[in-house]
Protein 1
Amino acid sequence: MEGLLSVIEELYQGKITASNTRVKVYKKSFKEHEQARLIMVKTNGIRYILVVGKGSLFDDLQGENIGKGKACPLSHENRLVLNRYFDYTVPRAFGTKIATMGLGDRLGLASPGHIEAIKGRLVKPILAQQSIRELTLTNRTMNDMLDAAAFAVFQEGYEGGYGADGDHIKQESDIQMALELGISMLTLDCSDYIPTGIGAKSLEEVRSEFEKYPKDVQDYYNERYLHQTFDVNGVAISFDEETLIKYVLEYDEALKYMVHVYNEYISKLDRDFDFEISIDETETITSPMAHFFVANELTSKGVKVISLAPRFCGEFQKGIDYIGDVEQFERELSEHALIAEYFGYKLSIHSGSDKFRVFPIIAKHTKGIVHVKTAGTNWLEAVRVIAKTNPYLYRRLHTFALRNLEEALKYYHITPDLDSIAPLDSVTDENLADYMNNDAARQVLHVTYGIILTAKDDNGEPLFKEEFYKTLDEYEDEYIESLVHHIGNHVDTLGL
Ligand SMILES: [Zn+2]
């Protein structure tokens, strides 16, 4: 708490103190509300909101009395207070008229950099975005994620609006929980309902499976699609028996689940909401035709989606560029984009970090109406900062990640060429950050984040987590700078 007294004294007099060696003052956070004044500060690595004055906001914020004010910790309760008084700290939906970018923040530290990176651009940030898998792997809760985003917005004085995505949620209990906690976007993951291997089956095989469906279901699909051609913004889509049956077998169960979730939860909300359907986390590539089939069924059943994430051809592996045939990607993407436009939602691009080869194609065909989801690339930028500023920590992380890669591969699909990673003892401290320019090293560190952050020593103490956070805290400006640069490159290449 050292040094806070004088900051509080000046705040009381209406002055904003400059940062000094003991206290960092986040000037952009300064706010006045009726008779209260607030500002965020950091001392000894811990952030507080200082509040002076009087009134209900002053009373509602909980903290330690210091001089004429209070130093309030960044607690969940205090976040809820900010939400009540300052609308811009509440996550909101964005609909289909503007691009959005998913900027999941595993550490709870990246949002200030993300805000800086997208300020003034033609894109809104979804600052809070974690899947249940990511939360579990990092021992965080959905509230931790929402708290971190709201405090970052307050710290930066960013009033442009941000979203919070319950990312890749599968279970109804998780949907319910996330909605109650105030998410503004849900990415419904339907992969458990999409069987694989249908595409490889013969017509006889799929026909006999289709014949097991109730007669009225068979009739329904046949009447709507069989030997029909649809003109979708100039793309002709026609269904013969085999393609139709295969789509029914692939998506009928998933469609039922989407409709159920929409009717049971989304349509009942009394607020604007961004509902996204994801059919990307499966081996089944979504052809433009399959995309049309799913979208057409959703529309006819009254399900309003804001975005839909197909599984594109080629590979969208975490943290590295697109792998695959770029020409084929463009052909299919252009049709996916026309289909999305036809049904009036945004195309959603998942695992969208670092896909620089295809960003210009995405920009060209989605014309600024797109959702691009990135998640781990800000973690890699954090690792880059560690490599530059704390080489000893970086070396231990690197060794640990390689040694425990097997474990991480249970959760993530990557195919790194491990031989291309230079042996650690051959690299000088000055060059450690170069590992973050090597695809294989990027991927190894990308997928081992959970193992690194939760690793314990023999006494049950965190092996890396505290030092990792401490280093990033010390070099917070460097971290912001590297995110502004890296995420800025994404936004530039996407033409947003
Ligand atoms: Zn996805």
Protein 2
Amino acid sequence: MPELPEMENYRLLLNQRLIGRIITDVQVEREKSINVPVPVFQRALIGASIREIERRAKHLLFHLSTSNVLVLHLMLGGMMFYGTEEEKPDRTVQVTLSFGAMHLYFIGLRLGYLHYHSLDEVDRLLQKLGPEPLNAEFTQERFAQLMRKQRGTLKSVLVDQGVIAGIGNCYSDEICFEAGLLPSRRSQQLLDNEMDRLYHSMRGVLAEATRNGGYMEMPLFAEDRLTGGHDRQCKVYDREGEPCARCGRPLVRQDVSSKKSFCCLHCQH
Ligand SMILES: [Zn+2]
């Protein structure tokens, strides 16, 4: 499932292409992907322009010129492609937003969705999310306070969107590896220096993955060489049996709090 770096990469690339563009057509192949009847959805969107695209946790918010918002969550298997009809990948598309000859295709929205909301509704829907881990106001002290309040393992606490927003299964393991901490450690029981390492690892891993374009496999547009650049840089996630980048010993899968998890038993404590 795309996490903060993947969605932030999409946000940056789409903002460069879509700000000010008018939606000229809307096609919905799968009604369950949206939250209002198709004709209402089309009437609300066609003729509106994209004011700005914002990210909150793993959501993208497409702010429209009408002051309403399209809220996107890709969930598992969702992705986007921006281009002409000829460039479109051979995949089933659930929703298409057209901007003249260019189209934004939403693909693999099985659990994912593209919902139409007013700004107030969006505020209400997203109010339970925890702070953004890369925001300047999210200091080391605030992080430690939040983590010390949680009873769970690092794995379960890091992926809890109500504690910190935007981290999922892959980056929680990458952050723990970078910090040299086992994902099965209890959040409450970290020593001060371990908590510091975890904070800096979280900021470092998420920022680097974003710079590298995240791990999505499919490019966002035809000449896109950035998206997916981080896929090869992931050090532990889904790499069971491969040598640890630090010590060379084989990485292991150790599910934690019923979540798939990978680590090095030698480098992480
Ligand atoms: Zn190791």
